[in-house]
Amino acid sequence: MVKIAPSILSADFSQLGKHVKRLEQGGADLLHIDVMDGNFVPNISLGFPVIKSIRGLTKLDFDVHLMIAEPSKYIDEFVKAGADFITVHYEAETHLDRTINYIKGLGVKAGVALNPATPVSQLKYILPSLDMVLIMSVNPGFGGQKYIGYSTEKIRELKTLIDELGCNTLIEVDGGIDKSNIKTIKEAGADIIVAGSAVFKDDEIEKNITQLKGAI
Ligand code: DX5
Ligand code: ZN
Questions:
Q1: Which of 51, 79, 90, 205 is the residue whose CA sits 20 to 30 A from 68?
Q2: Distance CA 200, CA 19 (A)
Q3: Backbone dihedral angles phi then psi of residue 143, each to the nearest 5 degrees
């Protein structure tokens, strides 16, 4: 069963607590939290205090997507803030193997995100160590962008590689996903679908989640 991970980047931050509760009640499977530093990506979003402030409001797993330079410096703080999954970008981490092992050593699930232009083959050796690979289907930094078509081929390629290696790494896909393309993305091999604007559209969180699940 494919899981839906709403991205709180598209929430109304003045209503964040209420929105988190509505997401849980509306059928979200995990909460996708986009952290941006204004350096790795050209946008700044949120950090530790915000994550801590919502941790007590929901039982949903926190899926923390770090779009930050030198993520290894901040792993301890994200674990303390309540992360259940921590995903670092391939393009932002020089010592990926070390950082992944560090995250897992803290008892948290570890993921690697790939920018659209980064080939899946870069992960060949590290894949069995990963709990998740995040295929970015837009250039990271902003919600509400258009799905990049070749991402579907990357999902298929990753799925084939995972099956060949016999590992149980999850495939997450993030960016530009709505009810028009979610089925194709699932059929390509996605296990977790991130959706921001499609979930928060018209402030109809519950209806939008139901429609996304219905479209699969
Ligand atoms: C983009 C973020 C995404 C984004 C998804 O950098 O990683 O999680 O918020 O938003 P939509 O679904 O609107 O593309
Ligand atoms: Zn994200």
A1: 205
A2: 9
A3: -80, 170
User: Which member of 29, 34, 37, 63 is catalytic?
Assistant: 34
Residue 76 annotated to the active site:
no
Which residues on neighbouring strands pair with residue 33, listed in sequence order?
64
Residue 202 is a catalytic residue? no
Does 197 belong to an annotated binding site? yes
Question: Residue 141 CA: which ligand 1 atom is closest?
Answer: 6
Annotated ligand binding at 174? The verdict is: yes
> Which ligand 1 atom is at minimum distance from the Cα of 145?
14
The stretch 39-56 carries a mean pLDDT of 98
Instruction: Choose one of 91, 136, 151, 194 to mutate for the ligand 1 pocket test, by most ligand atoms within 8 angstroms of C-beta.
Output: 194
**Mean local confidence (pLDDT), 12-24:** 98
Q: Do residues 63 and 88 lie in contact, with contact meaning Cβ atoms separated by under 8 Å? A: no
Tell me, using a 6 A CB cutoff, whether residue 65 lines ligand 1: yes
The reported pLDDT for the residue numbered 128 is: 97
- Could you tell me the residue ranges of all domains in the chain? 3-215
Q: Which amino acid is at 118?
A: T
- The label of the residue with tokens 């997450």 reads 172
DSSP secondary structure code for residue 168 in this structure? -
The CATH architecture one would assign to domain 3-215 is Alpha-Beta Barrel (3.20)
Amino acid at 47: G
Q: Beta partners for 35?
A: 66
End-to-end CA gap in the chain: 10
pLDDT in tens, 49-87: 999 999 999 999 999 999 999 999 999 999 999 999 999
